[in-house]
Amino acid sequence: MSSPVKPSAHQSNAAVPATSAAQQGDNIAHALAGAGGGLLSMTLTYPLITLSTRAQVESKRAHSSTYDAARRIVQREGLAGLYSGLDSALFGISVTNFVYYYWYEWTRALFTRAALRAGRASQKLTTVESMIAGAIAGSATVLITNPIWVINTRMTARSTDSPTSLPSPSSAQKPRKPSTISTLLSLFREEGPTALFAGVLPALVLVINPILQYTIFEQLKDALERRRGRVLPRDAFFLGAIGKLLATSITYPYITIKSRMHVAKNEGPQDNMIGSLKRVVREEGWGGLYKGIGPKVTQSVITAAFLFAFKDALYAASVQARRKVPKAIPLK
To answer: In angstroms, rounded to a whole number, what is the distance separating the alpha carbons of residues 103 and 16?
Structure first.
C-alpha cells in the first residue's frame, strides 16, 4: 500500500474553524483533496508500482533488472500489463487518502482545542502530537483499506505464476484478465474472508513510514530555517521528497514482507511476519528484502511530490468554492 503524504505545514498549523460544522467541513475538504491528489499521482506513477510489486514477489531464479522486467511485461501483456490492477489501486488510494486525511485532521483539531483550553501560547502541533495524529490516522487507514490492497497485489502479481516464455503468433488466444470482482470472489471461495487481512501486521508497522517522513522533513526544515531564516515552497517540495526517500528506504524490508504475505497462499503455506522475514533471508539473503527497491523508491518520491502539489491545489480550490457558497445561496 502506498503511504499518504503528511499535510503540509501551513495546512496543519491553521487555526481550528470556529464551529464543529465548519471543522467537519474542513476535515472533509482535506480528505477529498487527498483522495483526488492520490488518484492523479497514482495514475501517473502506476507502471513503477507494477514493476516494484512483481520484483518483490518473484522468485530468486527470475531475478532480473527493472528494464528486463518492464520489457517482459510489455512483450507478454502489452502496455496494458504495466497498468494491471489499476482500477483497484485507484479505488484503494482514494479510500486510503480520504480516511487518512480525515482522521489526521480530526485528531489535529482535537489537539488544537486542547491547547486552546490549556492556554498554550502556540496552537501548532508539537512533534509528539503530530506523530500521535499520524499513528492514529495511519492505523485506521490500514484496518479499513488492507482488503483493497490485498486484492490489488494479487492482480498485479498474478503474472509471476505464469510461464515466462513468450507465446508464438499461432498459439491460443490469451485468457481474459481477471477483474477486481472476480479476484475478490476467487479469494473468498479459495481462502475465505480472513485472507483479506493477510499482511495486516506489517502494514500496521509501516504506519511508521509517514511518521518518519514528517519527522525527517521537520528536522531538515528547522535546520534550513536556522541557516537561511525562511523556507520557500520550492524548498518544502524537495525536503518532502528527501523525507519520503529516507522513510521508504528505511521501511522497505517491511514493504517486501507485506507484499509476500499478500500472495503467500499462491506459493505454499502462509508464514507469519517473522517467519516470512526469516524465509526471505534464508533463501535469498539480505538482498532479497530490498528486491525492487529502485522502482519503489522512485515511485514513492515522485508520487509524494505530485500528491503534495495536487492536494494543495485541490484544497485551495475547495476553500475558494466554499467562500462563494454563502454569496450564491444566501442563508435565511
So the answer is: 15
